[in-house]
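Prompt: For my understanding, could you write out one protein's sequence and backbone structure tokens?
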Amino acid sequence: MRRTRLLTAVVALAAGLLAGTPPALATADAPAAPAPLAAESYTWRNARIDGGGFVPGIVFNRKEKNLAYARTDIGGADRWQESSRTWTPLLDSVGWNEWGHTGVVSLASDPVAPDKVFAAVGTYTNSWDPTDGAVLRSADRGASWQKTDLPFKLGGNMPGRGMGERLAVDPNKDSVLYLGAPSGKGLWRSTDSGVTWSQVANFPNVGTYVQDPGDTSGYASDNQGIVWVTFDESTGTAGTTTKTIYVGVADQGNAVYRSTDAGATWQRLAGQPTGYLAHKGVLDAVNGYLYLAYSDKGGPYDGGKGRLYRYATATGTWTDISPVAEADTSFGFSGLTVDRQHPGTVMASAYSSWWPDTQIFRSTNSGTTWTKAWDYSSYPTRDNRYTMDVSSVPWLTWGADPAPPEQTPKLGWMTEALEIDPFDSDRMMYGTGATIYGTEDLTQWDSGARFTVRPMVQGLEETAVNDLASPPSGAPLLSALDDIGGFRHTDLTKVPAMMYTSPNFTTTTSLDYAEKDPNTVVRAGDQDSGPHVAFSTDNGAHWFAGTDPSGVSGGGTVAAAAGGSRFVWSPQGTGVQDTTGFGSSWSAASGIPAGAVVESDRVDPKTFYGFKSGKFYVSSDGGATFTASAATGLPSGDSVRFKALPGAKGDVWLAGGASDGAYGLWHSTDSGATFAKLPGVEQADTIGFGKAAPGASYQTLFTSARIGGVRGIFRSTDKGASWTRVNDDAHQWGWTGGAVTGDPRVYGRVYVATNGRGIVYGDTSDTGGGGGGTDPTPVPTGACTVTYKVTNQWSGGFQADVRLTNSGSGAWTGWSLGWTFADGQKVSQVWNAEHTQSGAAVTVRNVGWNATVAAGSSVSFGFTGSWSGTNTKPTAFTLGDRTCATG
């Protein structure tokens, strides 16, 4: 099933975010905004989905075992944590004005100094992304970054993003890096560890291939440029620059170039195949082979023909080692990896084999012969060398029951990232359009036994979020997502069993529930064929399709009456519609333009609202007719989101605008007849409501906004009179203008939509708010043992793993471990736990999924921290009032 990440660009365009410069203060004479209150302590997590988007690159460090990174097209980069077998996000600090830097076009882990990692970031090379690209560099494995801006854009979500890696570190002299640029900008080099960059002026080819020259948006018509750089480490010694460098170029006639003098001169490799693009170039320096995976297109969606070639670096001999004849292919090759423990073992993927499945090929004799991950025993019956276990992420079956030869779950699609662990021949990971799959018994392939493929994606959240709802009863969270539809979360710490089905929307654009009957839910969305609206009468657990009125081409926005008896829908392709019942027939609404955003009053079941092009519209007859409000001064464009407050008829909040006009937050208490602009909010893009603060009568407000010159997620407990920023600079998640909502049952809890980092939710530590609705952690009883190990240390920083064992006789249902640092160490980032630190005292608490620890079992977490002088290990650990033994 084809999944497209381009939809996120369309969503952002609709929000008015991608057209031009970042938002600015709307009017010169707007009152000065008071500085927001300082951010209080919030704990941030993801509502677990596990994956959900395209992973075009996986990079293992070749010097240190278990050090690996993944890059995503719009959701940042992540580092693998071996102790917990999870991924840790590394780019959550990217802010609103540089949201494009959440797209990672390439990533390089330093093969000399493993603490160093580099990322080339930027999402689009056309006007959709207002900022140029950058190279980020880290000396602490991505815990913190420094940035060098580039004089051109990069395209982490552009065509060709699965090729690579475009960024590479010299394996002999790691102060030297190369970066392949798109858009005709050529090859770039740094000689000071990525601090400064200059173009390699003598490189002869900037690339010629574009996906679609006729695309006027610039998205598919951009030159895909320089697509990979590979060093031959055998041609250098430690501390000297590597002599031989291979570079892949998006040019179907001239795809591979080589330098044998450390980049002083470059030549096209003679005798190379033509008519293809080289997606990958992977070198086996032991045997002297450069392997190349070719496709006729740039990917990640297209590609109808492909070949695999082996180039002998000593003799210049080219050998076609393709596992199938060209006449038998309907796909290109991209994923390509060599087993560094056994370099004669090579694997490749048919990345663009959409039907019936992707294919993975394996050779143990340098490509002379190949075997397939699956083949036909007797068409359409398949014989798989593998078994799929998606029990940890069950929605990967898509709830499908396809006819053979298709199977569910699929082995994958868009499989451009494929890597064998350089230290473990049994471990392989590969990226798909929805997840990272992996195996840890890969060599069973060669013995004829089946190896097991499982998701290896926990912690990596990569969905673009269009809408969120937190009903007053039932599931705490309902979501509308790009590419995988959306989920009903009954437990935020667990992966839901399935996305919305019956029907499946590729993208859900809008959802709503009936305020007085939260079991009644409606959603609208996009799909290739079939209805674009669906209904549920059990709080989103089960669904049935409505009927589309004529002309519908997309989901648009949809609203449910407060009592659940009526619905108003503003789909793409036709005008606003209303219905009684569950959408078996629709009537065109009058008085409101097509494309209007629609919402319902949360008290009066006959009152609906709409907004389009600066005008607010009101219906008092259930959506049959609308009347334009006389309200003025509202944003003139369509970058607006508004909501009516539960429990108060006619109480409406409206957020939105653009830098060239009105921009901010407005409030109406008379059903939109008049609006008052809040003077303290310079910009606002979303509005949501949550449980009132203790002692307050008005619900808590949440917004993604700029207040007092600061961009962030803000909360007000006094009807917008004052605001508190609840996120911090380490938790920004790029663009957060899609949706926000509080939780009506948990004071302080806020759910934030991101454009690639999934659903983020935060809980407050404010004691006045009852700790965000989280019960105090129970104090475990019984004995405990702690193992504390510093796994890596560098100048000014270190990484440690901690294992806490329940050595008593009863299970724990929550835990809180404390210790004191002797040398002034500071914890900076923790994974698989939450932490606080006061002076030298550190307290680490469980998160939801690892609260229960059975007798005899252990729980592990890790952290990075800073130190100076000495880094003495703690000598005592306490669990509640009990001192733990140390192991």
